[in-house]
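Subject: for your reference before the review

Hello V.,

The reviewers asked for a structural picture of the protein, and I figured it would be easier to keep everything in one thread rather than splitting it across files. Below is the amino acid sequence we used in the manuscript, unchanged from the supplementary table.
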Amino acid sequence: MVTRGQDIVSVIKQQIERFGAEVAMVDVGTVVEVADGLAHIHGLSGAKYNELLQFPKDVMGIALNLEEDSVGAVILGDCSEIKEGDEVRCTGRILEVPVGEGLIGRVVDPLGRPLDRKGAVKYDRTRPMERVAPNVVMRAPVSVPVHTGIKAIDAMIPIGRGQRELIIGDRFTGKSTICIDTIISQKGGDLICIYAAIGQKTSKVAQVVATLEAYGALEHTIVVCAGASDPAAMQYLCPYAACAIGEEFMEQGKDALVVYDDLSKHAWSYRQISLLLRRPPGREAYPGDIFYLHSRLLERSAKLSEEHGGGSLTALPIIETQLNDVSAYIPTNVISITDGQIYLEADLFNAGIRPAMNVGLSVSRVGGSAQTRAMRKVAGRLRLELAQFRELAAFAQFGTADLDKTTRAQLERGRLSTEVLKQPQYSPLPLEKEIIILYAVTNGYLDDVPLDKVAAFEKGLYSFMEANHPEIGREIASTKDISPETEQALGKAIAEYKQSATY
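And here is what came back from the structure prediction:
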């Protein structure tokens, strides 16, 4: 009887302790089927799109298909831990990623977990991975250049802060190299860079991180990585996580640059998820909302007006083509979303012209408004002259004997310009050096220099200007313009170098 009495007392105590406690209502469902990293769940009537779901053994998932009596979810983790009949709960949290300056210099996965063995990531807050793009009223015109350090791009296809410039071409044509050079070029500047590696080999990502570290560029860069061996769900989330991290800096009034390398693999991962979720396939087996997949990502890049902080988020998406086919489904979709494209050709790359940019097919829809005044003055005619040269060269290959003197001179100038615009990887140039060599070639100072001596001439000219006329470079770098006095001094300095040069 005593034991019975003690039991009753303990039950009464528990009821008193629980009296007045809040009753929480949790939406619960049951796993009906699990395979290929996806789970079909019966129930969860209150689940929201992109909501985090709690599976057993601390495995998380995302609700992607919201059907009448079931939910299709992508599992973020090891799906072998989950089996039919397991209980799944709604968390009420939409998918989010850690943001802030604590991520700078780190390599993280799309959920913000560290991959670089440097300890936990320090962050103050998180942001939803998906959000509505800034509207027209919040935006300002693109007017401040992103200095890439690549002569051909800064001179002819300028990129502005807040722009979306597509980099498109076949495999091994130097697409990633252009983006890495641009990131290296921001060393010591105010542009924070985010590199999203989507579906890349882990060895390639490690190589990129090592390169950035070697050139001191990891100090202003965040690498978000979802490798080729990661689940399709992680590859799908990777660019959205990178964009959310960049948006945080934009809304603080800072400037950020995000590289999506590459969106072709992103589309593949989404196609894989959609087909497994039994969504109806369309052209090239992609689902019907494949355009919206990339438009809602790239539209988030913007230059905000001063009333909204004046920050910017610039996007450099990469698309890989098959046999130069820019008319395929994904390339045409992304071309229509972006503000221009840099088209890289395998034939030019194999001919030793690197960066292998096709001047005729590449375009920047922002144009000269994203260039410094100095660059506009020296490179204004360059793009047109190079496009004309390519056409003339194709015509003149049948024989140069019958060509008139003006055409031959134009061909020679085109060959010189092409030679000057060649640039080795991982060696971006400061603005003043670009201006000096482009001024020299467009004003005829290189017309009597043999083609095989152009690289030596350029290297020697930089050394000569630094040693004998450093004030010219400083003037161009500080004013971003060429005054008549500076132009006159620059012309005299180049003529002086030509007389004493031993290139």
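For the response letter, the relevant points are probably these. The chain is about 40% helix and 20% strand. The radius of gyration is 28 Å.

Happy to draft the paragraph if you're swamped.

O.
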